[in-house]
Amino acid sequence: MPPGAGTEANRKVYTVLYAAASGGGAGSLTPILMIALLFVVMYFMMIRPQQKRRREAEQMQSALAPGDEVVTIGGLHGTVTAVEDETVLLEVAPGVQTRYARPAVARVIKRAEAPAAETITEEAEPVKE
């Protein structure tokens, strides 16, 4: 007992403090490790895939081009007729065009086909033997 711990109440307090300080050094680290492990698992199960989906959506929206058939987040199907910095013009029916923000495009159904390259054909000369 430390000096000056003469009363019964002081002895009980020091006994409890001594028992708490000396016991469970490694045992008190286990709950902290479990919480840290829980955060690591949550990061790889929830946050990381969400970041990947967001990156893919941004790439898809930046690659929009006239002629692409798309679906908006509201379920509207249309064909991209013009692309601007922040908006996309969709033709939802013949002669009916509506303007949407790029993030409103949920997915691309069919990409516009690139115009076929001109093929140059020349008459092949027969091989001389």
UniProtKB/TrEMBL annotation:
The keyword Phosphoprotein does not apply. Coiled coil: none annotated. Its main location: membrane. It is a single-pass membrane protein. GO terms for cellular component: plasma membrane. Keywords: Cell membrane, Membrane, Protein transport, Translocation, Transmembrane, Transmembrane helix, Transport. It holds the Pfam family YajC. The chain crosses the membrane at residues 20-45. The keyword Cell inner membrane does not apply. It is found in: Cell membrane. InterPro entries: Preprotein_translocase_YajC (IPR003849). Signal peptide: none annotated. GO terms for biological process: protein transport. Belongs to the YajC family. NCBIfam families: yajC (TIGR00739). PANTHER family: SEC TRANSLOCON ACCESSORY COMPLEX SUBUNIT YAJC (PTHR33909:SF1). This is Protein translocase subunit yajC. It comes from Micromonospora marina. The lineage of its organism: Bacteria, Bacillati, Actinomycetota, Actinomycetes, Micromonosporales.
